[in-house]
Amino acid sequence: MFELLKAGGILMVPIVACSILALAIILERFWTLREKRVAPTQSINELWRWIKKKELNGRKLKALQASSPLGRILAGGLINAKHGREIMKESIEHEASQVIHELERFLNPLGTVATITPLLGLLGTVIGMIKVFAEIQLAGVGNAGNLAGGISEALITTAAGLSVAIPALIAHRYFIRRVDALVVNMEQEAIKLVEVVHGDREIDVEGA
């Protein structure tokens, strides 16, 4: 592996660095964007039971706020529920914007990795071909070994760049869709909470 990296030239260093960064982001996002962590069903069902039994208090609101990103959004709305529907909705939207920003953390760097690694590979290809033509100009086409070195460097960097970019792009698209699905789920729960608190909807704790 070291010989392969060495044959790829200096541009293999940023490509390898990008691969390490992409792997770290992918593993971290897989762990962070789990539904049971972002919007745990158990915490939501417990909230509905608290509301129905009129057991909601400051201590339980703090527990809800610390339980999950969705709990943080709902707690933000409940804290300001006494000020009316619009203030409650604004509080939910304020908390939701911060939560969504946290859910999307590191996705831009992952997208950047998916974009620049093929370009780094292409740059390596260009540098390798420049070396080939420079060797031809100096020594002609008789020295096949030197020519093969330049061609090998060009191909290795291209392959390495694409090998990093393809899974990074797939993961980036997957996480974007994952965040969108989580946001829709949290939005539905927030709307339900507003309607329940202001008497427009009955609490459904079936199965809770």
From TrEMBL:
Record-annotated MotA/TolQ/ExbB proton channel domain positions: 67-187
Source organism, top-level taxon: Bacteria
Segments traversing the membrane: 6-27, 110-134, 154-176
Homology family: Belongs to the exbB/tolQ family.
Protein name stated in the entry: Biopolymer transporter ExbB
Matching PANTHER family: MOTA_TOLQ_EXBB PROTON CHANNEL DOMAIN-CONTAINING PROTEIN (PTHR30625:SF11), PROTEIN TOLQ (PTHR30625)
Organism: Marinobacter fuscus
UniProt key word Protein transport: yes
GO BP annotations, alphabetical order: protein import
Keywords on record: Cell membrane, Membrane, Protein transport, Transmembrane, Transmembrane helix, Transport
Compartments where located: Cell membrane; Membrane
GO cellular component terms, semicolon-separated: plasma membrane
